[in-house]
Specification:
about 400 residues; alpha/beta
């Protein structure tokens, strides 16, 4: 155990909360201060585009804290924003208030939505926080509306599924050739588009928003697309990705190009670690230097980073990336890394029914597995992926 007496955790969401849990579980008895920009206590974000948006869950239902978390004994400074980091005096500066001194620091500030100029128009929504989801839900409760979603990534696709299932007319506007094409490739992306079309969603691809028209109250009423067409829009949701929250670290000397740069153990600098969406590190399992914006990673990396901060481990943080998306009655799951893949092969099921397992090859290795509603074979291929199996062995695996 180190001689640390005070630890500050910047970020009060999934990674921040799990860092606090791990600090206490690993014997840290000193002062812990958690700084969070939102007023709310930690809550789960995946339901925001699905059950919470649909009104099937309340904020209490997505709370992340467990009954025994009152034993964590941490000071929660919520509704405040970190404004700077002074490494010389070991102090986190707070916007409009007093700072917090630290012996150890956990950076878990996550991401925020990437905004377009369109986002400043009344009637245009984004989806990242509980407040965002609440505002969109209230807008959709005024009766059947035409909901236009700009961006066909995971969040945009989930919002589309929720909105059309609630009886709204829905259009997805995607600048790429297929929704999720950059992540899943053209073939599976096309299958995602077909899945939504079968449920009544209009999917427009290869176009972007070039202008908008307001109504008499200044709210968005229609969108002009890059191909010259115009579509009506009672409600518009912009979902074009996220950006890491690192501006508060400018001038600190920490590398903040595309997140907070860590070594393989999650260490940023002496006595400073990072975890979750904001952390960029080289994953020994995939060899990639990147951030991973996944729920599972936020938990695992936060716990590893906390142990590293306390001197309990100097092992590299290894992760088999995993992300899922629920759309209608389909659960899409991805294991591994599909970036830079050379080949995709459907080995079970088919894309037409959207029940399949697809393997992705990079070089001579199995790089990733994507599956929809085929859990048992997915688990088998996940093990092969974790074991670093070759492409040939993966293709020859018993499918019984």
């Amino acid at each position: 155990m180190t001689g640390m007496k005070s630890i500050v955790v910047v970020g009060a969401s999934l990674a921040g909360l799990n860092a606090v849990r791990a600090l206490r579980e690993n014997g840290f008895a000193g002062r812990i201060v958690v700084i969070g920009e939102e007023d709310a206590r930690p809550y789960d974000r995946p339901p925001l585009s699905k059950q919470f948006l649909a009104g099937q869950m309340a904020l209490a239902d997505i709370a992340l804290e467990r009954p025994n978390d009152h034993d964590l004994d941490a000071v929660w400074r919520l509704g405040v924003r970190a404004a700077g980091l002074d490494l010389t005096d070991r102090r986190v500066l707070i916007e409009g208030g007093s700072g917090e001194s630290f012996d150890g620091l956990v950076i878990a500030t996550g991401c925020r939505v990437r905004r377009l100029p369109l986002c400043d128009v009344p009637g245009v929504h984004v989806m990242r926080t509980a407040d965002d989801s609440t505002r969109l839900r209230q807008a959709m409760q005024s009766g059947p509306r035409h909901v236009v979603i700009v961006g066909g990534g995971f969040i945009g696709a989930e919002v589309a599924a929720t909105a059309v299932s609630a009886g709204h007319e829905v259009t997805i506007v995607e600048a790429l050739d297929q929704p999720l094409g950059r992540v899943l490739g053209a073939e599976i992306g096309a299958a995602v588009a077909d899945l939504h079309r079968r449920h009544g969603v209009t999917v427009l691809t290869g176009v972007s928003v070039s202008d908008f028209k307001p109504d008499a109250d200044g709210n968005v009423s229609s969108l002009k697309l890059s191909d010259g067409s115009v579509i009506a829009a009672d409600i518009c949701v912009v979902s074009v990705g996220v950006m890491p929250n690192v501006e508060w670290l400018e001038g600190s000397g920490i590398d903040i190009s595309d997140g907070v740069l860590c070594d393989e153990t999650c260490l940023v600098a002496p006595g400073i670690v990072a975890a979750g969406d904001v952390a960029r590190w080289r994953n020994p399992l995939t060899g990639e230097l990147r951030r991973i914006e996944h729920w599972d990673n936020a938990i695992r990396q936060a716990r590893h980073a906390a142990q590293r901060l306390l001197g309990g481990t100097a092992e590299p943080y290894r992760l088999l990336p995993w992300v899922w998306s629920d759309q209608y009655d389909r659960k899409l799951q991805i294991y591994g890394s599909l970036t830079g893949s050379d080949e995709m092969k459907i080995v079970e099921g088919d894309l037409e029914s959207f029940r399949f397992v697809a393997l992705f090859r990079r070089g001579d290795r199995l790089a990733g597995v994507v599956a929809a509603n085929l859990a048992k074979p997915l688990l088998r291929y996940r093990k092969l992926l974790a074991d670093g199996m070759s492409w040939e062995i993966a293709l020859a695996a018993d499918r019984g």
